[in-house]
Amino acid sequence: MQAPAQLTISPRLAKNIRRNVKERMIELILMLAALVAVATTFAIVGVLLYESLSFFKTVSVVDFFTDTQWTPLFEDAHYGIMPLVSGTLTTSAIALAVAVPIGTIAAIFLSEFASHKTRETVKPILELLVGVPTVVFGYFALFFVTPLLQTLYPELPSFNMLSAGIVMGIMIIPYIASMSEDAMRAVPMSMREGSYAMGATRFQTAIKVVTPAAVSGIVAAYILAISRAVGETMVVAIAAGQQPNLTFNPLESAATITAYIVQVAMGDLPHGSIGYQSIFAAGLVLMAMTLSFNIVGHWVRKKYRESY
Question: Could you give the angle at the alpha carbon of 168 between the alpha carbons of 127 and 230, nearest 5°?
């Protein structure tokens, strides 16, 4: 009886097979990681919606958006989200008023005017601000910025939205500066050379050529900064106060959505109570606000995006 023929594989073919298997495994791991991120997002949204629906079975949606008081932990409970929304928007607006101009100017300087050595020195130092815990920024606002502002305005209360917003802006500057600088440096050098050939100065080139060409990346930095400001927790919880107050006056104290969530989440409210479920309704509003800003930012980026 004749023995079966044995199939021999060359070393080169065997090496290619092993490499293809490894690449397939890497692709599988990457796909699983992406699916975990997507599943986590859907799980968070699902929990928010489930708990919020339970909340809205007790509280009218109309009262939720029209009542001007937010006192879910009091005996005479009111569930108007507007005081928390006004505090969130006011502190975020102050933070962006500080961070956007300073961050953009810093990005223009680092991209167009700073030497290589200066850029490699200043940018890491600037990005160190990102690594500082936000609770440190909160006490910096409460014990340094607020007393400093009180020397100019003695009637300023210890807890106010102005100092919290200013410190949040300082905290957000690295996000805008770093991302905007990366977008500006991605602009082709030929565009700068063309501008110089037309007789433009370095400043004119930076403002009228580089910045408009990098606007999509700059807008992305702004959107990240907005999301960071809206979602900031510890600074506003420490420096702005935790009393819901329907006002847009930055000189007054107020509570934000995130500050209320922290306040209730650290309490002793029983699971399933209306006060406990109110943090999910507030979180759902916060997510809707952030999602709206991201959609608008995506639309702006898509509209003004330049391809080189």
Answer: 110
Q: Please state, as a whole number, how many other Cβ atoms lie within 10 Å of the Cβ of residue 250.
A: 20
Other Cβ atoms closer than 10 A to 22: 10
pLDDT tens sequence across 236-261: 888 888 788 888 988 888 888 888 88
Map tokens 């080169």 to a residue: 12
Taking a C-beta distance cutoff of 8 angstroms, is the pair 111, 186 a contact? no
Amino acid at 222: Y
CB atoms near residue 104 (< 10 Å): 20
CA dihedral 105, 103, 120, 216 (to 10 degrees): -90
User: If you write DSSP's letter for every residue of the chain in order, what string do you get?
Assistant: -PPPPPPP--HHHHHHHHHHHHHHHHHHHHHHHHHHHHHHHHHHHHHHHHHHHHHHTTS-HHHHHH-S-B-TTSSS--B--HHHHHHHHHHHHHHHHHHHHHHHHHHHIIIIIS-HHHHHHHHHHHHHHHHS-HHHHHHHIIIIIHHHHHHH-TT--SS-HHHHHHHHHHHHHHHHHHHHHHHHHTS-HHHHHHHHHTT--HHHHIIIIIHHHTHHHHHHHHHHHHHHHHH--HHHHHHS-S-------TTS----HHHHHHHHHTS-PPTTSHHHHHHHHHHHHHHHHHHHHHHHHHHHHHHH----
Pair 225, 99: CB distance under 8 Å: yes
Indicate the pTM of the whole model.
Answer: 0.83
Q: What is the pLDDT of residues 25-51, one digit of tens each?
A: 999 999 999 999 999 989 988 988 888
